[in-house]
Design goal:
Shape of chain B: globular
CATH architecture of chain A: Alpha-Beta Barrel
CATH class of chain A: Alpha Beta
CATH architecture of one domain in chain B: 2-Layer Sandwich
Helix content of chain B: 25-40%
Oligomer: heterodimer
Number of strands of chain A: 7
Strand order of the largest sheet of chain B: 5-4-3-6-7
Number of strands of chain B: 19
Strand order of the largest sheet of chain A: 4-3-2-1-5-6-7
Distance between the termini of chain B: 48 Å
Structural class of chain B: alpha/beta
Number of helices of chain B: 17
Largest sheet of chain A: 7 strands, mixed
Structural class of chain A: alpha/beta
CATH superfamily of chain A: Aconitase, domain 4
Radius of gyration of chain B: 21 Å
Strand content of chain B: 15-25%
Largest interface: A-B, 53 and 65 residues
Strand content of chain A: 15-25%
């Protein structure tokens, strides 16, 4: 995992609440056996009409949204299935952070393990961000702050361990493997 | 200090306790693996030169992308979707390479991962159980702490038998009273989700308690715990009791003899102590619950089957969901024509669910123009159903009787609902496109689903039983 310290980008806004992982990537694309290349299926049924053409009204298809790395979404993003294909698809598409007032537990875990930053903000901040698509934001992982274009800084919660892993590009498997003696001791007493 | 069952199970499994800076290292007693969320995890192990640490605590099966047509499962007909066939082969290769026990496509014990764990007696009270699937919450019905994980975490458990976790908060769902005629565990959990909301349990483990829960048999308890994730909770638990022990005793992989006696004594110490406190509590009266059906695009958009679709003026997101579903605010769902009926899934694919469907279908025929798929949750469920002749009732009624698998719940195996069609489904998710692009899913109990199949319209099952 690459270390992540600062994310600076325009936002793309999906105001829908409860965006579930079946929308992020429908199950018919889960037959893959690798992590790569899932970005093309991101939000497939919202991005494309049945004939395969792009739906112009969908936010990600707007010319101004191309290349945006920060997704602002309505409450309870990522609910549903545990498919890690959801953060893989977002990352492969180019999204590096998701901002919402609430992010589902399993999605949040999966996102952090892949270097996709889940950013929880309060209602007023979320409402403001949802109403101002395309603004430039700076997310500082070390300081756990979001800088708005007017210079305001909003804090967001990020557990110390997750922050440490993101900033240093550390993957948790390495950390777990380093506790081998503890695991062996547990297995002996269990 | 009185403790909850979650606290007790958690503390037993701490390899390293959590601190302000670091999560706990939690030991996992049972890791269930399937074909969809494991290939990238095995690849990671291979890339790092790691093996599977505890093969004795790991069991693989295939369920999501597997076909349910008998000719494709047993007759050698090719799996329709090439990528799905590849995924099945990949799991076979990985299990051989890493020495993991696999219940393969033709195995008599194969089935949906959350059906076979309890069925084999592998899921036991007090265990930590994980699987790369969010409906792992099902296993909490046995008094286990069971939750879904992503593929990276599947890799962690394969390599170390451990996970990094923060202890979740506790949420008591107290259910008093008794379910009325025609009302099932599915209706109960849908009513609970309708009340607490689909993010109501985020960050919490639900513990279902009270006389209505005690009165449920094990399969009904699994239906309830299965949909904990639909309330945002990674896990749901029900304390073990005599019902649990009676279910487990004699199962192929449950402890036997002296080991059984020791296990039993231990399990009896698990239930939440009197006076233990929860972070949240909500009370329900089971006797006030009616047969439920969803009308929208998430499981929280649910109502009594005799009711009307709620009105929410000025809510554009809500209006969009209703437009997708082709339903109107203020209108009833009853008598709405349906195209497809699906009975199955890890929520309602067990023998008692099939018996419920048979209760309605016996001596009746499904309405013309309706397609009904009945998919047992496992091959063992299939054999048991056939032993009591349920399949004859289904086939005589005009339903399609299949081999086990996730089938039409997830629509990634060839079993799908067409664009715009209405599907009354006993599964767990009515998200847009869940059963196929553009499909419209109405979640309900097996009784309700079967009643809808008979009438070809949304039907209150109490009209037919």
């Amino acid at each position: 995992m690459e270390p992540i310290a600062i994310i600076r980008s325009r936002t793309v806004v999906l105001p829908a609440t409860n965006i579930d992982t079946d929308q992020i990537i429908p199950a018919r694309f889960l037959t893959t056996t690798t992590r790569a290349g899932l970005g093309k299926h991101l939000f497939t049924d919202w991005r494309y009409a049945a004939d395969g053409s792009e739906r112009p009204e969908f936010a990600l298809n707007a010319p101004a949204a191309r290349g945006a790395q920060i997704l602002v979404a309505g409450r309870n993003f990522g609910c549903g299935s545990s498919r890690e294909h959801a953060p893989w698809a977002l990352l492969d598409y180019g999204v590096r952070a998701v901002i919402s007032t609430e992010i589902a537990d399993i999605f949040r875990n999966n996102a952090l393990k892949n270097g996709l930053l889940p950013v929880l903000v309060d209602e007023p901040t979320s409402a403001w961000l949802l109403e101002h698509p395309g603004i430039e934001l700076t997310i500082d992982v070390a300081a756990c702050t979001l800088s708005l274009p007017d210079g305001r800084k909003v804090g967001f919660p990020l557990e110390a361990f997750a922050r440490y892993c993101l900033l240093n590009g550390i993957d948790e498997l390495g950390y777990l493997l380093s506790h081998r003696t503890d695991i062996e001791a547990y297995e002996r007493r269990a | 200090m009185p403790k909850t069952i979650l606290q007790k199970v958690w503390e037993r499994h701490e390899v390293v306790a959590e601190t302000a800076d670091t999560p706990a290292i939690l030991f996992i007693d049972l890791h269930l693996v399937h074909e969809v969320t494991s290939p990238q995890a095995f690849a990671e192990l291979a890339a790092r030169g790691l093996g599977v640490r505890r093969r004795d605590l790991t069991l693989a099966t295939m369920d999501h992308s597997t076909p349910t047509r008998t000719d494709q499962v047993f007759g050698g007909a090719p799996i329709t979707i090439a990528a799905a066939a590849n995924q099945v082969r990949e799991l076979e290769k990985n299990c051989t390479r890493f020495g993991v026990e696999l219940l393969n496509l033709q195995h008599a014990d194969r089935g949906i991962v959350h059906v076979i764990g309890p069925e084999l007696g592998l899921t036991q009270p007090g265990k930590t159980v994980v699987c790369g699937d969010s409906h792992t919450s099902t296993h909490g019905a046995m008094g286990a702490l069971a939750f879904g994980i992503g593929t990276t975490e599947v890799g962690h458990v394969l390599a170390t038998q451990c996970l990094l976790q923060r202890r979740p908060k506790t949420f008591a769902i107290n259910v008093s009273g008794a379910l009325r005629h025609g009302v099932t565990a599915k209706d109960l959990i849908l009513a609970i989700i309708g009340r607490i909301g689909i993010a109501g349990g985020t960050g919490h483990v639900l513990e279902y308690r009270g006389e209505a829960i005690r009165a449920l048999d094990m399969e009904a308890r699994m239906t309830v715990c299965n949909m904990s994730i639909e309330a945002g909770a990674r896990a749901g638990m029900i304390a073990p009791d005599e019902t649990t022990y009676a279910y487990l005793q004699g199962r192929p992989r449950a402890p036997r003899g002296e080991a059984w006696e020791r296990a039993l004594a231990d399990w009896k110490s698990l239930p939440t102590d009197p006076g233990a406190s929860f972070d949240r509590e909500v009370d329900f009266d089971a006797s006030a619950i009616e047969p439920m059906i969803t009308y929208g695009t998430h499981p929280g958009m649910v109502m009594p089957i005799s009711g009307a679709v709620p009105e929410r003026h000025g809510d554009a997101i809500y209006a969009r969901a209703l437009a997708y579903m082709g339903v109107e605010a203020g209108a009833p769902l009853k008598d709405k024509p349906v195209n497809v009926v699906f009975v199955g899934s890890c929520t309602n694919g067990r023998l008692s669910d099939l018996r419920d469907a048979a209760r309605v279908l016996r001596g009746r025929h499904i309405a013309s123009g309706v397609r009904m798929l009945i998919v047992p949750g496992s091959q063992q469920v299939k054999s048991a159903a056939e032993a009591e002749g349920l399949h004859r009732i289904f086939i005589d009624a005009g339903a399609d009787w299949r081999e086990s698998g996730c089938s039409m719940c997830i629509g990634m195996n060839g079993d799908t609902v067409a664009r715009g069609e209405y599907s009354v489904s006993t599964s767990n998710r009515n998200f847009e496109g869940r059963q196929g692009a553009g499909a419209r899913t109405l979640l309900a109990s097996p009784l309700t689903a079967a009643a809808c199949a008979v009438r070809g319209r949304v039907t209150d099952p109490r009209d037919l039983i």
